[in-house]
Amino acid sequence: MDRQPDRSVDRGSVRRRPEADPYLPGHGDPSYAVTNYDLDLDYALENNHLSGRATLTLRACVDLDELTLDLHALKVVKVTGLKVKRHTHRSGRLRLMLAESLAAGDEATVTIAYRGVPKVVPDKIGEAGWEELEDGVIVASQPGGAPSWFPCNDRPDDKATYRITVTAASDYLVVANGQRTDQRRRASRTTWTYEMTDPMATYLATVQIGRYAEHKIRAAVPMTAAVPPARRRAFDDAFGDQPKMLDLYIRLFGPYPFDSYRVVITDDELEIPLEAQGLSIFGSNFLNRDWDSQRLIAHELSHQWFGNAVTLESLKDIWLHEGFACYSEWLWSQESGGPSTDHRARHHWERLSHLGQRLILGDPGADDVFDDRVYKRGALTLHAIRLTIGDDAFFEALRTWVVRHRGGNVRTEDFVRLVEKVSGTSIQGLIDDWVYSGTLPPLPASNQAAPA
């Protein structure tokens, strides 16, 4: 996660913040960074019991005599690796008092064995984490659900690489982030191993377990789907345009940022789809050709660029994820022969104009972080920028944004600085009006140019 223009991402570094994200109090410790998680999980579906062993490779950012990790509900069995005098585990926080201090810059590993029945993590923003389906498991960690299934430094500005190994009953398919590097069956149980070699925020880590059949989709990058067999025909129809969405986003945003893309379709209905790094999860209720389903297929795919490859530093800047993904829906609308991007923008501006305008896009508050106004006003902000600087500069800025900050973290100020450098046009006044004011500004006049 990167902050300064023209600065390459140091995947082993982290920017300290004086406190945890105020939107998620009680999560994360800025005094150290995790560079790798090695998770070895054994899951029994019949009683929803999880046994785990997590090995964290970490680096001290300051001199340390203790570490604080996030782990919710599960019981700590043993701590090894680091010399620990004692540990306490209360209110979802695992404190390790070190027998030997770590100096700033020191690297170390710690292994934590744990077990129990996973429970979602309740936060002011909402519940998230490991949940049982009718027949399987869904893990939706955004925003603070990662501690429901592994001990972690749960903050989005601490990205790490991952190795995730899951053992489960052999008649279930297990999907996790990254490339599948191993699959071994022993009697009635199978062990699946996945590796995510690109830096990933904890809230984007996931495991999906279900009675799925996996099949390949012909696309510009390796693309697969895990689908209940009885849903295959409906899936093929509903997701038939996903490769074309990928082609559009590669053209507009630059190369797809990961090695592959997967979708998982649960037999259960879900209120909303979910994105994770390298994959997205949809309920069976989204298996149709209606615009509301198609736009969400496009939305979740676009998060691979905006939210996953390039990730916010703190949740107050959520528009850098959701505004970009919502705007991607409008781009797909025109590409697929529907209403133009400009038409979608003006339609939603009109709708927003009749709603309360107190929400501040650049700091909406924990209660409104996932409010629909954040999504739509964020997308409208991008459209206003595009109409101000022109198509060529706008899409060059988006591509440069991903290249420069891939694997890193960003703030609104970083985006403003980059757009101004690429376009040679000051947009600070526009940002002040759209991002930091509660009043809804007018959209600039359309330049009548066909969107790219």
From TrEMBL:
Keywords: Aminopeptidase, Hydrolase, Metal-binding, Metalloprotease, Protease, Zinc. Residues 244-434 form the Peptidase M1 membrane alanine aminopeptidase domain. GO terms for cellular component: cytoplasm; extracellular space; membrane. It comes from Luteipulveratus mongoliensis. Residues 1-20 have a biased composition (Basic and acidic residues). It catalyses: Release of an N-terminal amino acid, Xaa-|-Yaa- from a peptide, amide or arylamide. Xaa is preferably Ala, but may be most amino acids including Pro (slow action). When a terminal hydrophobic residue is followed by a prolyl residue, the two may be released as an intact Xaa-Pro dipeptide. CDD domains: M1_APN_like. Residues 1-29 are annotated as: Disordered. This is Aminopeptidase N. Belongs to the peptidase M1 family. GO terms for biological process: peptide catabolic process; proteolysis. GO terms for molecular function: alanyl aminopeptidase activity; metalloaminopeptidase activity; peptide binding; zinc ion binding. The lineage of its organism: Bacteria, Bacillati, Actinomycetota, Actinomycetes, Micrococcales. It is an enzyme of class 3 (hydrolase). Its cofactor is Zn(2+). Its EC number is 3.4.11.2. Signal peptide: none annotated. PANTHER family: PROTEASE M1 ZINC METALLOPROTEASE, PUROMYCIN-SENSITIVE AMINOPEPTIDASE-RELATED.
